[in-house]
């Protein structure tokens, strides 16, 4: 294997020449949008001098416009008729149903806004589902992931050009946190790694290096730890990576660490002596967030507080920080959807693990297990506002890819 370092392993998959470089244009646009929407609010405020709400509105408008395009371009036939509903697709539908129904009892600050955000999450899934109707999963994944990587790389470049924050990390003090940039770069790195694994061209190595270095420069602690654990797992468990390659990659990682050692030391000193009163003891304030949200969650233990029920609802922490979520995936689901949400969350990740274990191609199995590890570790101290860390649209796409791979249908692409 060569996830980031393609070698001569046999994967039982098409290479770029065999596939004829077939692409799905709408999937390409979708992937680019999924990455670039992180910047919409920042662009609206810093470049156009508008409001954050205008940036959010523009992002939602693009989201629904993409859904409209996907419906307009809906083919009359399926590219792979037998690639129908999977267990993962049914779980995705169950999660969307639960989150949608929870709007009936949500304590959200704005029901209209919550409904719009929920609709956008559904639109993400619908766009991918419609693309899978007219193209094979491999083609959709290649197009979507490829342009996601390109979009994430654009954000990475701009993040380097922006002035550093007061705590030395990349991002904007008010509108774009380093954790958001780091998570996007981590996702983009894994997508580039997947494309390299599928032999889609060596140029993805350049994108992977840019995204990996930007992730480290963001100093997003949880994401970096999750990323390193996942990559070490892939490096050690993939039998097709030679010892020479392992040594080279470990040496490269050491050199990068040395290059950033001065910055890391400065940030560590700042981390120990500033923030909401001893950040190290409070895990950057997370212990306070976890304690408060858990104390609120137990008041509605079965069905929770509903969709989008944290932002502008719970009070500010330490007088300066307004949390958008619980900073822990399981706790976020418990607060929002109660015990039902936690059970569904575990069902999702257990199902993903089981589907990954069924993959017949060893290198693909190790890659996706590494990606799952990345998501799970990150979920211990961070999560998403609306979706889960492994987003619903990607669960749907992975389910189709897994079935295609195990059915041996990739040559039909």
Features:
Lipid A core-O-antigen ligase-like enyme; 17 helices; 413 residues; WaaL-like; ligase activity; mainly alpha
Structural description of this entry:
The chain is mostly helical. It has one domain. It has helices at 16-19, 25-36, 40-47, 52-72, 87-101, 111-134, 137-161, 178-197, 204-218, 221-237, 243-259, 261-273, 279-282, 286-297, 329-357, 362-378, 392-407. It starts with 15 loop residues before the first helix and ends in a 6-residue tail after the last helix.
Q: Would you tell me the overall average pLDDT? A: 87
Helix-residue proportion: 55-70%
Q: Write down the overall geometry.
A: globular
List the domain count as a whole number.
Answer: 1
Domain O-antigen ligase-related: 207-346
GO molecular function: ligase activity
Transmembrane segments: 31-48, 54-74, 95-119, 139-161, 181-197, 209-236, 248-270, 334-352, 364-381
Membrane topology: Multi-pass membrane protein
Give the arrangement of secondary structure elements.
Blueprint: H1 16-19, H2 25-36, H3 40-47, H4 52-72, H5 87-101, H6 111-134, H7 137-161, H8 178-197, H9 204-218, H10 221-237, H11 243-259, H12 261-273, H13 279-282, H14 286-297, H15 329-357, H16 362-378, H17 392-407
Keywords: Ligase, Membrane, Transmembrane, Transmembrane helix
GO molecular function: ligase activity
Protein name: Lipid A core-O-antigen ligase-like enyme
Short description:
It is found in: Membrane. It contains 17 helices and no strands. With 413 residues, it is an all-alpha fold.
């Amino acid at each position: 294997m060569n996830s980031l370092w393609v070698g001569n392993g046999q994967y039982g998959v098409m290479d770029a020449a065999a596939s004829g470089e077939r692409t799905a244009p709408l999937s390409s646009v979708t992937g680019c949008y999924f990455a670039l929407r992180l910047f919409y609010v920042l662009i609206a405020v810093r470049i156009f001098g508008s409001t954050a709400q205008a940036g959010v509105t523009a992002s939602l408008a693009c989201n629904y416009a993409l859904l409209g395009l996907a419906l307009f371009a809906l083919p009359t036939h399926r590219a792979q008729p037998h690639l129908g509903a999977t267990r993962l697709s049914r779980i995705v539908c169950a999660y969307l149903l639960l989150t949608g129904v929870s709007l009936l009892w949500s304590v959200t600050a704005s029901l209209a806004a919550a409904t719009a955000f929920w609709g956008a999450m559904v639109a993400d899934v619908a766009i991918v589902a419609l693309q899978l109707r007219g193209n094979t999963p491999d083609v959709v994944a290649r197009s979507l992931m490829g342009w996601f990587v390109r979009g994430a790389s654009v954000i990475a470049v701009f993040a380097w050009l922006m002035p550093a924050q007061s705590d030395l990390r990349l991002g904007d003090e008010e509108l774009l946190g380093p954790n958001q940039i780091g998570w996007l770069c981590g996702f983009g790195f894994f997508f580039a790694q997947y494309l390299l694994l599928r032999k889609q061209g060596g140029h993805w190595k350049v994108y992977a290096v840019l995204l990996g270095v930007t992730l480290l420069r963001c100093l997003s602690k949880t994401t970096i730890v999750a990323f390193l654990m996942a990559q070490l797992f892939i490096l050690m468990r993939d039998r097709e990576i030679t010892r020479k390659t392992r040594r080279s990659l470990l040496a490269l990682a050491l050199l990068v660490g040395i290059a950033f050692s001065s910055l890391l030391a400065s940030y560590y000193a700042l981390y120990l002596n500033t923030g909401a009163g001893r950040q190290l003891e409070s895990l950057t304030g997370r212990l306070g967030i976890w304690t408060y949200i858990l104390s609120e969650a137990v008041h509605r233990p079965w069905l929770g507080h509903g969709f989008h029920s944290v932002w502008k609802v719970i009070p500010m922490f330490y007088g300066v920080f307004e949390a958008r979520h619980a900073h822990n995936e399981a706790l976020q689901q418990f607060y929002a959807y109660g015990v039902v949400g936690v059970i569904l969350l575990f069902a999702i990740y257990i199902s993903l693990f089981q589907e990954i274990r069924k993959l017949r191609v060893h290198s693909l199995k190790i890659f996706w297990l590494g990606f799952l590890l990345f998501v799970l570790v990150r979920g211990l101290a961070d999560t998403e506002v609306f979706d889960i860390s492994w987003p619903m649209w990607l669960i749907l796409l992975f389910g189709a890819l897994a079935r295609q791979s195990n059915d041996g249908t990739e040559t039909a692409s």
